[in-house]
Batch of 4 targets.
Target 1
Amino acid sequence: MQFVAYGVNHTTAPVDIRENIAFNPETLPDALVSLKSQPGVAEAVIVSTCNRTEIYCHIDEQSPVDIRQWLQQYHANDVALIDDYFYRHHNHDAIRHLLRVACGLDSMVLGEPQILGQIKTAYSDALNQQAVGKSLGRLFQHAFTVAKQVRTDTAIGNSPVSVAFAAVSLAKQIFSSLSESTALLIGAGETIELAARHLHDNGVGRIIIANRTIERAHNLAMQVDGYAINLSEMPAHLAEADIVISSTASQLPILGKGTVESALKQRKRRPIFMVDIAVPRDIEPEVGTLEDIYLYCVDDLHDIIEENLQSRRDAALQAEEIIDTQVEHFLSWLRTQDAVPVIKRLRENAEKHSAEVLEKAQKQLEQGVEPQQVVNELARTLTNKLLHEPSRQLRQSGSDVDNNLIEAARNLFNIKDV
């Protein structure tokens, strides 16, 4: 049996290729059943996200299965057009690849944590379809443990590397407790949505979302326990905000110095932390000259992000060392599994011999034979039966030049001196 990993990701295939071979939640159960039914496929997990589609299998080494061909047939794709985009990993390399993916080392954003949750979901889906057994199940559980170790033992997840995350991290540095802070988010695009989620996850007290389209603002507000206002209402709510993050598509500033000065008077000089992510800028640069205003633009955040990326790169080197060690640990476990069938058969043989001599002893006792004689005979017979075949094999191996079997017997039975 061998492990294989087969797939594409954001570095090997453009989005149109990734779209053609992706699995959505509705089709994934059927795909797992179909893949598991292929000759030689003992276990299978399919990981499918916007940045990657990967198939992990435990297959018979003599299996005729062609994962590439199955994928082509399932999606009705021309394999000649997509084959160059795929990577294939076997055994040691497949194990190492899964561990790197789970730790975020193979992600578009180095060290991002979302991929681990996506892999756990993929594993759960495979379990639900009974597509995972002992070996692949153990590998994925090992990957989850290693990812946790990397998060704990390195700083790979400590430094924000997205604009939204960097903005929220700066806010946490300025305000001792976000639970007592109100955040005003201007816009409702992807960056604002990410900022809203980060703030919500960090326990911010209140979230106000201002947008030209009130319905879009309302939809986002519902997801983060906030409330929505129209962009025209924003000046009236500015004094409530301790944190302002803005990212709109406006060609002109929507927040001027005068409006901010009025809000500061109402706040009695309590500071406001502002992040202007928009290009062109949403907040007039002059606002940054006001006392009690901490204004950052997107370039300021990019400098922070670049520093943090370097920090993650350094942490990634530590993570790679952890992964190398953990790959060997998993391979050691695999090697122990080769002994399981032998141990099972050895015990079965021993139990068979025990049953035979015990039955004979019971008959002797029923016939009135002295118990001490029966016990002595039982011990002698059982010893002879258990050691007969090993002794024969060892005597026969005595003529071998290298005496490998004899040396193995010394180790197996912990024989120090002969």
Note: The two ends are 39 Å apart (CA to CA).
Target 2
Amino acid sequence: MSDLDLDELRAELDDFAQPEKKGGRTAREERIIAGFEEIQRFTETNGHTPQHGEDRDIFERLYAVRLDRLRALEECRSLLAPFDHQGLLAGAATVTAAPSETMDDDELLAELEGAAGASDIRELRHVRTAADKRAAEEIANRTPCKDFDKFKPLFAQVRKDLDAGVRKTRPFQTMAEIQQGEYFIVGGQIAYVAEVGEEFMTEYERRDSRLRVIYDNGTEADVLLRSLQRALHRDEAGRRITDPVAGPLFAGESEDGDLASGTIYVLRSKSNDPAIAQHRDVLHKIGVTGGDLKARLANAKLDPTFLLADVDIIATYKLANINRTKLENLIHRIFDPARLDIQIKDRFGNPVVPREWFLVPVFVIDDAVERIKDGTITEYIYDPKAARLTKRGS
């Protein structure tokens, strides 16, 4: 690559290497940090800092130019000092980390173009003609999600699951975790992988796929799977959101004071309130108890949680070795889309919002209990329009 004018390239990179201080991190500062992280990965993988020289790979020489600029500018050294665990800015690299997955040449070139703003790096087409195509794929701008109304309830449910402990966040680890129907936290936003396209092989025989990713701010992006993977690795706060689980529902011993047995009950209200009576056939209270159910219902007409009316017991399901609290939370999460939204006043005139009443047919509750027993319930959600349980992501 003797025809490459590195002095000219160095001048073009001057613009890239000058951060703007306006409070918080600017987009340029973020690019500088991202560019420095690439140099760090190169050093970890190759066991030495990037070097100049005609005998060096073009991409190593590009990294060397960038590192020179970062070392030369005080503003950049100040910005990057907290991240410089290898001592690269001082010129003393120490490498002990094991190599991590590296970018292929096309991916690197695309990233260099993005980092350098309007520089003439794209003139390296004579080096690799696929670079601009790869860059266009990597830099996928978000657009408003036109059917966000379909996804908005999903994000709301995920937040509830996280608050209730039904879902957890875990550090992102491997590309295999990126699948349709999975949730992640990247860039401070919840991202949902709504669609995964057909797998294809890159020029360097690496697997990749096109994704449709929906974000909780109402935008979406058409990105490559490896782009999302890299963004999650780069984001220190990037996380994978686990699938909903109930914890040890069927445990051999009690937890947090729960008994190791219990009853799922389904009740129907005898209230004459028109808002309740018109839905009587499908309106049910679903709960879990470890005590005597009939004794608990003796004063139902005085209890606003029972809608201040007597009730009929429609169904009961005896379960052994369960964690009642977690089981009840799981059931309520599943049927949350059909939760009754009503406010009544107790006998003292205070407003009460009953939370355990759902507009769900009994046969669907039967189905849910069977799936709780066989352990497949976390694979399903309730579709109130179809009045049935459906598989997640279907």
Note: The longest helix spans residues 27-46.
Target 3
Amino acid sequence: MNHVGVICPNTPGHVNAMLALADATRARGHRITFFLLGKPPASIATVGFETVSLGGTVFPTDEYQAELQKLGSLQDRAALKHTLAIGARAANAILEVGPTVVRTAGVTALVVDQVSFPGGTVADQLGLPFATVCNALLLNPDPAVPPYFTHWYPRDVWWARVRNRIAWMGLNRLYAPIMTRIQDHRRKLGLSVPTGISHIWSDKLQISQQPELFEFPRRKLPKQVRFVGPLHRSSDSQPVPFPWERLDGRPLIYASLGTLQNRIAGMFRVIAEACEGLDAQLVISTGNGMSPEALGKLPGDPIVVSYAPQLDLLRRSTLAVTHAGLNTVLEALSTGVPLVAIPVTNDQPGIAARIAWIGAGEAIPNKNVTLQALRAAVVRVRSDQSYRAAAEQIRDAIKTGGGAPRAAELIEHALGLRI
């Protein structure tokens, strides 16, 4: 039996996707262990996977959790910089603690999240094969594609290419503390030293959970990149309670701002006001950043819960209002539901731009959201069937991508795993 280790950020969007992949990999006869910073989520133990701490005294659990808590209250560039600051501290911990705990666990191959930047170095240090999994938006740089933190569309004109290059250069400066740490570590070990961020990912296999239609046209993409579509589990072992009896038969609008950058109470109120009086019933999921009670009574009396059976609700919905986190967006598109996106930070602007670019919804930058603008977008997306038609086109592409089972098959082949 092969023993596959998983390294990824300890946040729901990344862990849940990796759980789906781990499930599919275990079904093919392999043992799985997660290596995480912070407090292991109960969801991993519930489905029977082991968890090993990566933080040690370098990045203790309570400090990691505090940094994520802080991230939830930040927006735009401040949130992006804080995310990368967490990444720099995580790099120190993974490089110092990772090789020892991975070796002790007896792992024979690694599956590394694309944003767990030092994970590939741990694999190289131990002589292990590894695959990269892109659970967020595809991060690979390309001058033809705007960086993931921008709202821009691709434009085949000189000034857009120059703009993209400048933005990618700025992002590389933000990556510098992480890259320097990785380069120094590899240099000391006599390993090849990467000159850019794209050189730290696997040269065997890079899996993206985007369908290929949900990506801007690219000129430079490594041959080892494979688009498989969303990494979702086929069934949820723990159903999420929901007051189904409160649904009154009106068309449903589902709204979620995710589980991290969701501590903006005013935005939930704006969403409720924008949907009031539209002959629709609104369901709001607040995530773990805010209790439903903290929002008080909202206009239109929407159903407000901390957690919702998201996929079940999306299947019943005519529209989703989202922060443009990739998992929520892909779940909506997998059911053919169009979106109104309110991106907050990190890769969310780039995801929102792709929603609008393919015609499956509209995007309003967080700082530009007003009651009037949001209501107008909701009305347009609900009334114009072209948005749903575009969403259904992505739905059909998702059905043929293969998802987690296909990703597990590709990993097994690329890394030489045999039962």
Note: The mean pLDDT is 91.
Target 4
Amino acid sequence: MTPSTPNDRPVRALLIAESASPELTSVPLEGWSHSRAITRLTPALTITQVRNAEAFARAGVPAAEYRAIDSEAVARPLWRLGTVLRGGAGRGWTTVVALNSLSYAYFEHLVWREFGERIRRGEFDVVHRLTPLSPTTPSVLASRCAAVGVPFILGPLNGGVPWPVGFESARRREREWLSYVRSAYRLLPGYRSTRLHAAGIICGSRDTMEQMPRFCRHKCVYIPENAVDPARFAGAPSQEWRPPLRVVFVGRLVPYKGADMLLEAAAGVLRDGLATVEIVGDGPERATLRDLALRLGIARGLTFHGWVPHDRLHTITARAHVLGFPSVREFGGAVVLEAMLMGVVPLVVAYGGPGELVTPRTGIGVPIGSRSRIIDAFRSHLVRLAADPSVLAPMSEAGRAMVLRDFTWEAKARRVIEVYRWALGRRPDPPVFAVRD
């Protein structure tokens, strides 16, 4: 038997996923999916916040594979303060991220207090911070791991997509006051140190890659933030590409998601009975959208579902032909990948995360521009597709194939493990990812 070499040994990873839960959506679901996918491929221990412990246990995760840290003494009052400052749930996300950075520092302090000695002893080959995703949140663990010779991996980092010109009204309605001075986070204590001492930085979008300072570009690796778990969805879709055109919007009902633009763009085909639109989600814009629908006279072909549990969401999405998603400031775009997995063709604004995921063979992207230009572009495509939905069939097949090949959590975890091997000197170059349709 040939003896194993260091390059052959599985990488032992300590995963920091402060936000991780299979019972929630957005970042918590991503932290959960990412950490579990890595753990299935290599020996790993996940550290999460105590609020997630019961969800881990209900999901049947062995106790030896995770540890819950209780930082609620700081995290809970800061969350409450953030809710007050942002003017209620669903708005002012930049404010929440800023306050979470303070509570996260305390969380990392507790992590090092409990695991610092084990990291020093070399029980883990790498330490990887999966969440938070925000590039504004520094890490004291980066320098501490570097001091004891253990590579610290940061990311995926994603965020900071600039507000597009012409959407200042949406920005104010979102109460994104801190976004006007967001770049000031580079002056905060820990910003430079985190990037200097990280052995590798995973960037979840091209935009985030471009934000990285020159002194750390050589350690940055592009791997799209989002992925999908095919097991969470029904089997292969069986679409019938016949009129009327079925359009679905999935997302929080907040200004930048653009559900109002979709309704205005679809008004004509809705009134003519050539299409239907289903709005899935809830948020502060719900009443405004209902009023808009009444003014446009499109109530007959429009359905508001409200909030729908994630495990039932696919039953609504899968029956659509098109995901209508005119969001103008989307960082990742998980909903786009999930739609493509179900054979639903995305019609998106080619800006931010969706613009990196949708290709001409897998969907339709309209250029970022003024509100009226986006509405006109969406209207033009909806009119064309309503006349003959069957033209979507090739894009549906190509999109589903792309997601199953390149955008499952397992595929992402394999790339991340290659980042570990690169940081450990087991391969000469980092993995390179490109969207292939």
Note: The mean pLDDT is 89.
